[in-house]
Write a structure and sequence with these properties.
alpha/beta; globular; 12% strand; 2 domains; 6-stranded mixed sheet; 361 residues; 14 helices
Length: 361
């Protein structure tokens, strides 16, 4: 067997190992969930609650429960530490709590850049956190609220979503949410009279790379080829959190309310000096709302480790492996059709990788 054939065989073995569901084996997600075992050990020793540290905390909390340890005491011992705000469960617990409605209104107005009479004011949460309950997280976005307006104006339906990992189908997911929310606005047989839909997505990956756009906040609406607005009642607002902090110098002078929110949350996640925000009553309340003493052990276990989040994270991991294999096969000169068959990627995805590799070379 020549070098090329050996490499191809090795790559095929990786495909069989990493993508058994593509060739009719038992679903890879079920296998991995069934085989997963969480280790016991010390919780976070230092500060700076990152996404990874908080995930580790949740997993170890689950392991402690399996070992019949007192998980309430474990949470109690760390009650004055901050949670990772952008965790799905924590984000909903903080901003879907009716006791924190002032925080939620201020955050939404900041995201949508609403000022004066345009600000949302008459807000009602459609899926509020109920104190004392464990709650339930479906595949819906993290937080949904309705804002009533005066003078017969259509009310606003606002949804907030947090996503850490990007993929080729994430934009599809956002558009699907838009369609789902829109469909739920009108009962069967009624004449459509749509609300203003605002879908806000906090993303830790770039929707628009720095080379394409030097903005970190983007509004996406239906427009024609002359960029004229066709329909103003559907807007996706994308907040590129990662870009905001990667391009520090570019946004150093940004004093917008949204920029203040991003910096305040980041400071709390890092458990850094919060004194510059103490004079703002909203951020002072936020500082208290993110403390672990607001989160019961039951809520953290039930709400913090949902299957939808796990499956999505696993899918992203598998997609990355598939793309890595596809790049190797492209370098070997294999056809796009063969690579699609070997990896399970769509033709559009492989062609995109091919173009990226061509531009880099």
């Amino acid at each position: 067997m020549g070098d090329r054939e050996k490499l191809a065989a090795d790559l095929q073995d990786q495909v069989l190992e990493n993508f058994p569901d593509k060739i009719g084996c038992k679903n890879v997600y079920s296998n991995r969930r069934a085989c997963a075992r969480l280790r016991t050990g010390a919780f976070r020793n230092g500060k700076n609650m990152t996404r990874e540290e908080f995930a580790k905390f949740l997993k170890e909390l689950k392991t402690a429960k399996e070992n019949n340890q007192d998980i309430d005491a474990i949470v109690k011992a760390r009650e004055n530490e901050n949670v990772y705000v952008y965790n799905d469960a924590c984000f909903k617990r903080i901003f879907a709590d009716e006791r924190n409605i002032a925080l939620t209104k201020d955050l939404v107005n900041a995201c949508l850049n609403l000022v004066g009479s345009d600000r949302i004011a008459n807000v009602k949460l459609t899926n509020p956190y109920i104190p004392g309950e464990l709650g339930y997280k479906s595949g819906e976005p993290d937080l949904v609220l309705v804002n009533e307006r005066n003078d017969g104006e259509p009310c606003d339906r606002i949804s907030l979503e947090v996503q850490h990992e990007g993929s080729d189908f994430y934009n599809d997911r956002l558009v699907f949410y838009v369609a789902r929310h829109t469909g739920n606005m009108v009962a069967s047989g009624e004449i459509p009279k749509l609300k203003n839909l605002q879908l806000v997505s906090f993303q830790f990956f770039d929707a628009f790379p720095w080379s394409m756009s030097h903005n970190y906040r983007h509004t996406v609406q239906l427009r024609n080829q002359e960029h004229l607005l066709f329909f103003e009642k559907q807007t996706i607002t994308i907040i590129e959190v990662k870009k905001f902090f990667e391009q520090t110098s570019a946004f150093a002078e940004d004093r917008s309310r949204l920029a203040q929110w991003l910096r305040a949350i980041d400071t709390l996640n890092r458990e850094a000096d919060f004194s510059e925000f103490e004079g703002d009553p909203i951020f002072k309340d936020l500082r208290d709302a993110v403390k672990l003493y607001n989160f019961s052990s039951g809520y953290l276990l039930k709400e913090g480790m949902k299957v939808m989040d796990v499956v999505y994270a696993e899918y992203i991991g598998e997609e990355r492996k598939a793309k890595a294999i596809a790049r190797k096969l492209l370098a070997m000169g294999d056809s796009v059709e063969k690579i699609c068959a070997a990896t399970g990627l769509y033709k559009k995805q492989v062609l995109k990788l091919q173009n990226e590799d061509t531009e880099e070379s």
